[in-house]
Amino acid sequence: MVDITPHKKKLPSDIDIIPSLIAIPVSVLSDRSLATLEAVVEYLKEVLGLSYHEIAVLLKRDDRTVWTCYQRAKKKRGKNG
Fold it and tell me: Per residue in 23-54, pLDDT tens?
C-alpha cells in the first residue's frame, strides 16, 4: 500500500482546493525538460500574462520563488529575453 499522507516538511498543511477561472492544460506538463512548477509558472506568465505576484498568490509561493522558476524555465528553453 502507498502512503499518500503529506510530508510535513514540504507540505506543512492540507492543500486547499479553491475554484478558479484559470485552467492549465495538461499538455503544459508533457515536456519533461522542465520541472512541474517551472512549466506552470512559464505558462501562467507567458500565455496568460500574469505578473510574478499574481502567480505567487495563485500558487501560494513566494514572489522570489516564482521569479526563480521562471528564470530557470527560460534558461532551459534557451530564451535570453
Answer: 888 999 998 899 999 999 999 999 999 999 99
> Is the whole model's pTM more than 0.85, yes or no?
no
Cα 4 to Cα 44: distance, rounded to the nearest angstrom: 28
Question: Is residue 15 in some structural domain?
Answer: no
pLDDT at position 22 is 85
CB 15 within 8 A of CB 60: no
Give helix then strand counts, H and E, for the chain.
3, 0
Count, residues in the chain: 81
Residues 22 and 2: their CA atoms lie apart, in Å, by: 31
What are phi and psi for residue 25, nearest 5 degrees? Answer: -65, 145
Task: Give the range of the structural domain holding residue 51, as residue numbers without chain letter.
Answer: 31-77
